Amino acid sequence: MAGRPGPGARRREAVAAAAAAAGGGRPFPRECCEGLGGLEYGQVDVTAMARLFGYVDVTDSGFIAAVFSIAFNPLFWNVVARWEHKTRALSRVFGSPHAACYCLGAVILMLNCVRSHCFTEAMKSQPKLEGLDCHWAYYSGLAILAVGTLFVISSFLALGFTGTFLGDYFGILMEAKVTHFPFSVLDNPMYWGSTAVYLGWSLMHASPAGLLLTAVVAISYTIAMLYEGPFTEEIYQQKQKGAKNK
Questions:
Q1: Would you say 123 and 207 are in contact if contact means Cβ atoms under 8 Å apart?
Q2: Packing angle between helix 189-204 and helix 135-164, nearest 10 degrees?
Q3: What are the pLDDT digits (tens) for 144-182?
Q4: What pTM was computed for the model?
Q5: How far apart are CA 16 and CA 53, in angstroms?
Q6: Which residue has the higher pLDDT, 41 or 61?
Q7: Phi and psi dihedrals of 74, rounded to 5?
Q8: CB of 108 within 8 A of CB of 199?
Q9: Are 16 and 51 in contact (CB under 8 A)?
């Protein structure tokens, strides 16, 4: 019908009304906030937050699929890689550690394509944020995406295929730690570069859903790094001990 608002507009109106009703013009009692330095939540403007979440339907099937794919990918490759490190089952099945690593890398690449597709479809199915639907946000996002792509590609070139796709879990160890660019700029440039790509993509689409999903990407990678870092260090420590015992 011509004058009827769409579902995104109705959702934003409902959230804004709920935020206004929840506030009711009454501040929270000060004693409830003493643990946070006496902060009075009644003085905090929640309008911007309510407006942002008014654009995102977290119950949408496309959004849920994107969250699932984002969380699943690092969980999958960490579980499989640790299983391989413990059992060498994939190396036996594929005939060699290199062949097994290449097959796992191919699966990871396919999963990442699925994740990117779900991410993009989730953005398309939800409203844009008017404040980001402008030239400066688009070109800022493009610049961030370009920097992220630079980190991802340079990381891959520095590590090679097996170094990128968990070759050390297959016993394919590098001779020395990579310290040149982009690893001279920040740790885990592949993960942060990938996160920057999603952030830039979200800004280019003026998508609050994309920004929220980018936060999920960052959280998933952070958790993955907490598990991968110490485990990888342990693998190389075992290598050093073995070399000393020879």
A1: yes
A2: 150
A3: 999 999 999 999 999 999 999 999 999 998 887 788 899
A4: 0.78
A5: 9
A6: 61
A7: -65, -30
A8: no
A9: yes
